[in-house]
Amino acid sequence: MEQEGGVLKEGFLVKRGHIVHNWKVRWFVLKQNTLLYYKLEGGRKGTSPKGQILLDGCTITCPCLEYETRPLLIKLRTRTSTDYFLEACSREDRDAWAFEITGAIHAGQPGKVQQLHLMKNSFQLPSHISLHDIIDKMHDSSCGIRPSPNMKQGSTYKKTFIGSSLVDWLISNHFAASRIEAVTLASMLMEENFLKPIGNRSTEAIRSGDLAEQFLDDSTALYIFNESCKKKTNSKEEFNFSAAELSGTVIKQGYLAKQGHKRKNWKEENRPVGGFSLRGSLVSALEDNGVPTGVKGNVQGNLFKVITKDDVHYYIQASSKAERAEWIEAIKRLT
């Protein structure tokens, strides 16, 4: 539903720079034919856009698998072949952005938008089955899918399987009831980085921008297991948290601005750089009129404070009053 001022959607995304390929948090505003992005100044959206992406003639690729360590990417290619890489904070957020951007691109084609709605809502993985379960069974030596060498486009690829074979396997193992469902499920496995396309046929489908055919039910399309999924960095080595805390269910996630403890500057990080336990903490909203005590810099609005059981004070800014209220409520449930 379109918001006031013609805004279809807005929020934080991490954008790759054009010249220096660093990644920075930007505030994005989607309109009918334009995607605007703003710098964050003192924890707030800047007054003027830093840039814009014209959506007329754009193609969108989601999931974008060009960065193995960034599975939550969306790629936009403009009519002039300029590529934009945007990273969301969760799969749900990424898919919501991709869906709204695709709708804006095809705004003049109501049939295409209706098709996207049907695609989005047509398939649900049964609650008792996880993608991990499917991958484990695919690896099973007795009943799994057996990778083998395949030659396509003049090249030989080791330990691969063809798209139509995976569709057959998913149906025969009762993970999907039809080929359409199996293709959707295989696309989900690629979205979560369990599978990778290999060779020209399957990689071109990913880059085509056609959300309906990311995975190909085709005897010429090749795929492999993404073995890097098994080489995740142990979070215990990066942060001094207990295993119980790290294995808990995600209650809420998203981008927030936090005041630094030493330099007192405000940052919006796009990778985990630290954390703290919420057990025994206190959380409260801060006044929106003026700069509250303890806050450095001209930062106002949508602020809240968390005081840990060790009396460490964290000052955090949300993107809106509603978002602040949601964070406070979520944190209170964990304290």
Kindly describe this structure:
The protein has 3 domains: 118 residues, PH-domain like, CATH 2.30.29; 101 residues, Winged helix-like DNA-binding domain superfamily/Winged helix DNA-binding domain (Arc Repressor Mutant, subunit A, Orthogonal Bundle), CATH 1.10.10; 77 residues, Pleckstrin-homology domain (PH domain)/Phosphotyrosine-binding domain (PTB) (PH-domain like), CATH 2.30.29. Helices cover 26% and strands 24% of the residues. The radius of gyration is 22 Å and the shape is globular. The two termini are 36 Å apart.
Search tags:
single chain, 335 residues, alpha+beta, PH-domain like, Arc Repressor Mutant, subunit A, 5-stranded antiparallel β-sheet, 9 helices
CATH level 1 class label of the largest domain: Mainly Beta
**Unreliable residue stretches:** 229-248
How many β-strand stretches?
A: 18
CATH architecture of the largest domain: Roll
Tell me, briefly, the overall form: globular
Order of helices and strands: EEEEEEEEEHHHEEHHEHEHHEEEEEH
Mean pLDDT across every amino acid position: 77
CATH superfamily annotation of the largest domain = Pleckstrin-homology domain (PH domain)/Phosphotyrosine-binding domain (PTB)
Number of helices, counting only DSSP H or I runs of 4 residues or more: 9
In short:
The chain has about 325 residues and is of the alpha+beta class. The protein has helices at about 90-105, 110-120, 130-140, 165-170, 180-190, 200-205, 235-240, 245, 320-330, and strands spanning about 10-15, 25-30, 35-40, 40, 45, 50-55, 60, 75, 85, 150, 155-160, 195-200, 220-225, 255-260, 265, 280-285, 305, 315. Strand 2 (about 25-30) and strand 3 (about 35-40) form a beta hairpin.
